[in-house]
Write a structure and sequence with these properties.
The complex is a heterodimer. By secondary structure, chain A is an alpha+beta fold. In chain A, 21% of the residues lie in helices and 36% in strands. The chains are: A alpha+beta, B alpha+beta. Strand 3 (79-85) of chain A pairs parallel with strand 4 of chain B, so a sheet runs across the interface.
């Protein structure tokens, strides 16, 4: 990025994202343009995407995309104004600051008075290393080469491969004019650069009778064994051809790790302390007439005792966008609900502890030692599920959900896979499945690509989960889609 | 700053205009950055040409460039939030492979870099096995220009007028006890876009999209629960602030927004007064309201006739299509009853996907997808129309793009997105209530939302469902849904209301990798479908 301010600021070939110095310089320029006192904050994000998409065994698009997002908050009097842009030249920055000031005076966000908060006890937690030079260094040539190698085996077998390779890098800094060079507040984000790589593919036969999928995401491209994914997708496609119709009903299921993480994603989004306190959600126990409040299930056993779910923000495999104040949390300990997430204000006001925000932004689930093959060999009759699609919640209290199996579903009879079966719609609660576990395997990272931080939708939660075998999983109808 | 809202309001219209003045952004058209001119400024054509020259010089056989300037204003009752972005994206074709490069800077140097980079991206893939791209012909546009007509430009009026409007809706709704707005915000986008291609086309257009998130909450003291009623008459539309302010909008609402709120509340009250009945699982004739029909059309034929999806290009993302053999199906596949005719356009006034030219510089045509129950066409772009050349030839039609290339902004590569869809109305001179009145025994379905499978061939519908006996809704089912197969449900279409009962809704659709979200409109009238499978969606096996 050029440092000269009389030129339009662009990300160069050498530096595809903003550096820490760039961010500091931009923030200082924004702060200098502010009139009339009051705090000015910037949330500055930049990203680069190197992408390759293929279908029908040929690359359909290769792309290099970059963008910037600058959000400016201006506090004027009791009001706060907020604007955003992707233009970083001086004139645009000044214009954006003026617009934020206009907005602060004329159409303000009413600021809550910020209570005097004690400093957090340990602001210097180890930074999550979510930067990988290997990811950043992958060239378009390397992506093209990789894609051809992934397509080759499928095409040689007469199959149709479609897939996506993506390498991303980004930077993020949230800085305030009142805290430049001093201890950051819990809502500040010191400069962090991150990378993210993902590879996924679907192999289908030309008649459309079989489909196999495999994918993995990680901050580090070196952690993704793309040829192994290609082989898995192809194997699944071949094995899933010409499925037969199976009656819906309750089946013992062997859920591969990807299916487990898709099924229990809704549990991760339910982990808020406020929800049971309002008498709702899966973690409410009962109303306490004496104290006049809702009691939650915190401290009670709610899942199979073999399940422990933890999150260490310093684990790069669970790395999401930087939030240096997040602490390691055990969410479920041997099946006991031990934590629910809360904001810092909540911690200070209601829990009376000086703790940072707590949030489930990634998780590692405990497992066992049983391989999927062993699970199959010990199953008299059941279904092997590759992954799920289109899951939606039907009931927020029981987390009853419905969704579809996709890209490979097989019937297991007498310890062996006997045939491919047509996809089924399930109607089941993940909590039921996690309480009906028979066997668990070794936890592995799964495909949970993290979205850009400025995107409005909730980011997917990175996860490390085991395959599980669970009893009496409820399938309610067959579907024709393959 | 001595300015406050009170003094501002006193100063009147001039100050309001000042607050609405766009922020100056800068582009470098010559030697130095300068204020961003209107999109029609001829010097932007030179800037765009720089990218094309660069791509051509690097070896592209075809290239196009899009420049977008997007203003977004999010309105809340008490504040307004502005976003303003500039993007540029260059697409290059070389030996049958596409490359794309994009970024946020409009300058000659950056145009040149993006042109080179797009070709570089294409070249890395052209090393592999051959791929053939035949672009369907598109007339060359010479400095064409268009602005979407809107009655009230949301960026020309004071944002406070909008805030006051939203606040007044809250106050108006709260007059009744236990009622209030639980969602009340709106968003307007104005996008200026310049398109240029190496074929010699150059066009600019300015379009608008306005949408609201408006929901009435009704608190029921007896059960201590709150039910929420969303008002879909403010769903995404190619309109300005008239989406809220107009007394009526053809095919969207016949009354003012306040009257619409009152009507919906009365309707909700009427629905809630009906006794609850245990569900009879089985097959029943069903009356669908216009919202449900629009969602049904969009979820089935709307997405299944995206040609790229049908041919497997979305297999690794959203999925494929139950219309899985377009070449053989065009002109012969029975997609529904003879009553079923579905057309598509990007020309309808107020449509969320309406544009003069698509992201490939093609003027979209109005086309029929299903005619009298037979599948006759798919949604196409310049590249995908070429795939259908043989099928079109059999029908005696030339292969030409329907102009469905679209993307949220120039930073995303254009791809095929769903255009505005219209379900041709029937001849039944009646609305939803009249269709219910004509039913002796069956069910009535309102506000259905659908969970479609990844081939859009079957789905689960969740809705407000009522028991109908002798022409009256006599009970409501507290938990009910319906299962259907796309082709079966359209073949079961018995009757449909006339155009008078048709309503248009704006919907969003996500597609691609990385995912892109674009908007389109769906217009449909209430209809009767026979033998729908009613289920309890909460019931496990």
């Amino acid at each position: 990025m050029t440092g000269r301010t009389d030129r339009l600021v662009r990300l160069s070939d050498d530096s595809r994202i903003l550096s820490e110095q760039d961010c500091q310089a931009i923030a200082k320029r924004v702060f200098a343009f502010a009139n009339g006192g009051g705090e000015t904050s910037v949330n500055l994000m930049s990203w680069w995407n190197g992408e390759l998409r293929w279908a029908r065994n040929r690359t359909t698009l290769a792309s290099d995309r970059r963008d910037i997002r600058l959000e400016i908050w201006r506090d004027v009097g009791k009001g706060r104004g907020n604007v955003s842009t992707n233009q970083l030249d001086d004139a645009s920055l000044e214009a954006a600051v003026r617009a934020a000031e206009r907005s602060a005076v004329l159409a303000p966000i009413i600021r809550r008075p910020t209570p005097t908060q004690p400093p957090l006890p340990n602001p210097e937690r180890p930074k999550t290393a979510i930067w990988s030079d290997a990811t950043y260094a992958v060239t378009p040539e390397a992506r093209g080469e990789a894609a051809r190698a992934l397509i080759g085996p499928a095409e040689a077998k007469g199959m149709q491969s479609a897939g996506y390779l993506e390498m991303r890098a980004g930077s993020h800094a949230r800085l305030s004019s009142t805290r430049m060079g001093t201890t950051p507040a819990p809502w500040d984000i010191p400069y962090t650069a991150w990378t993210q790589a993902q590879c996924s593919m679907t192999v289908r036969d030309k008649e459309g009778t079989g489909s196999g999928w495999a994918g993995l995401s990680s901050y580090d491209w070196a952690h993704i064994d793309a040829p192994a994914l290609a082989a898995r997708a192809l194997d699944k496609c071949v094995a899933s051809q010409h499925p037969v119709t199976l009656e819906p009903g309750r089946y013992t299921v062997i859920l591969e790790p990807q299916a487990v993480c898709e099924l229990i994603a809704i549990v991760a989004t339910s982990m808020y302390r406020e929800i049971p306190e309002q008498g709702q959600g899966p973690w409410v126990l009962s109303y306490d007439d004496v104290l006049g409040l809702w009691r939650s299930k915190l401290g009670l056993k709610v899942l199979d005792e073999r399940i422990t779910i933890t999150h260490d923000p310093a684990d790069p495999l669970l790395g999401i966008f930087p939030e240096p104040w997040l602490e390691p949390v055990t969410w479920f300990d041997k099946g006991v609900l031990t934590n629910l997430s809360f904001l810092r204000d909540y911690a200070l006001e209601k829990l009376n502890v000086n703790a940072p925000r707590r949030a489930l932004t990634g998780y590692r689930m405990s497992g066992g030692q049983t391989s999927v093959e062993e699970m199959i060999s010990t199953t008299t009759r059941g279904l092997l599920v590759s992954h799920f699609s289109d899951i939606r919640a039907l009931d927020g209290n029981s987390l009853l959900s419905t969704g579809l199996t996709r890209d490979g579903l097989w019937l297991i009879e007498h310890g062996k896979i006997s045939k491919a079966v047509k996809n089924l719609r399930f109607t089941e609660s993940p909590l039921f499945a996690l309480n009906s576990i028979e066997q668990m395997g070794v936890p592995v990272p799964v495909f949970r690509p993290v979205k850009n931080p400025y995107e409005q939708e909730a980011p997917l939660t990175p996860a490390i989960v085991p395959p599980i075998k669970s009893r009496d999983f409820s399938f309610t109808s067959t579907i024709d889609a393959i | 700053m001595s300015l406050n809202r009170r003094t501002f309001l006193k100063t009147g219209v001039a100050a309001a205009a000042m607050a609405a003045v766009p922020r100056p952004l800068y582009a470098q058209l010559g030697r130095a950055p300068e204020l961003l001119p209107p999109i029609e400024d001829p010097r932007l054509a030179s800037l765009a040409a720089r990218a094309l020259d660069s791509a051509r010089g690097a070896g592209a056989v075809y290239a196009d460039v899009r420049l977008t300037h997007t203003r977004t204003r999010r309105f809340f009752p008490l504040f307004t939030y502005d976003d303003e972005d500039m993007e540029v994206g260059v697409r290059a074709l070389l030996d049958g492979y596409w490359g794309f490069a994009s970024g946020p800077v409009w300058s000659p140097d950056e145009m040149a870099r993006l042109g080179r980079e797009a070709v570089h991206q294409a070249k890395t893939n052209a090393l592999g096995k051959p791929r053939i791209v035949t672009l369907a012909p598109a007339p060359v546009l010479k400095n064409a220009s268009w602005t979407m007509p809107v009655q009230i430009d949301p960026f020309a009026i004071s944002p406070f007028e909008v805030q006051d409007h939203l606040t007044s809706l809250e106050i108006f709704t709260r007059r009744a006890p236990n009622v209030g707005l639980v969602k009340n915000n709106a968003m307007s986008t104005m996008q200026e876009k310049a398109f240029a291609s190496t074929a010699g086309s150059y066009c600019t257009q300015r379009s608008y999209l306005t949408m609201g998130d408006l929901a009435v909450g009704v608190y029921l003291p007896r059960t201590k629960q709150q039910s929420e009623l969303a008002l879909d008459c403010v769903s995404a539309a190619g309109l300005g602030w008239e989406l809220y302010a107009a007394d009526s909008i053809p095919r969207v609402r016949d009354h003012s927004l306040r009257d619409e709120i009152v009507l919906r509340l009365e309707e909700a009250k009427e629905d809630a007064m009906l006794p609850v009945k245990a569900l009879d699982v089985g097959r029943f004739d069903a009356v669908f309201d216009e919202t449900s029909m629009a969602n049904l059309l969009d979820g089935t034929i709307g997405h299944a006739t995206e040609l790229d999806r049908a041919l497997g290009l979305e297999a690794n993302a959203g999925g494929t299509s139950y219309l899985n053999d377009p070449f053989a199906m065009i002109g012969s596949y029975v997609a529904g009853a003879p009553l079923l005719t579905v057309s598509a356009n990007r020309s309808e006034a107020g449509g969320a996907a309406t544009a003069k030219w698509d992201d490939e510089g093609v003027a979209p045509d109005d086309f029929t997808i299903v005619k009298n129950g037979t599948l006759v066409d798919f949604q196409t772009t310049r590249e995908s129309a070429g795939w259908l050349a043989d099928a079109y030839a059999k029908l005696g039609k030339p292969a030409h793009s329907h102009g469905c290339a679209n993307a949220p902004s120039a930073v995303e590569a254009p791809m095929q997105h769903v255009p505005n869809l219209t379900l041709a109305p029937g001849r039944e001179a009646s609305d939803f209530n009249a269709l219910v009145g004509g039913m002796s025994d069956g069910i009535a379905i309102k506000r259905a939302s659908l969970d479609m499978d990844f081939q859009h061939g079957s789905g689960l519908g969740l809705a407000a469902i009522f028991d109908v006996k002798k022409g009256k809704r006599v009970a409501r089912y507290p938990s009910a849904g319906f299962l259907f197969r796309s082709t079966e449900i359209w073949k079961s279409l018995l009757t449909m209301s006339t155009d008078k009962a048709s309503r248009r809704f704006g919907v969003s659709a996500q597609k691609g990798e990385p995912p892109q979200t674009c908007y389109h409109s769906v217009t449909a009238a209430p209809a009767v479908v026979k033998q729908l499978t009613l289920i309890d969606p909460m019931r496990k096996a």
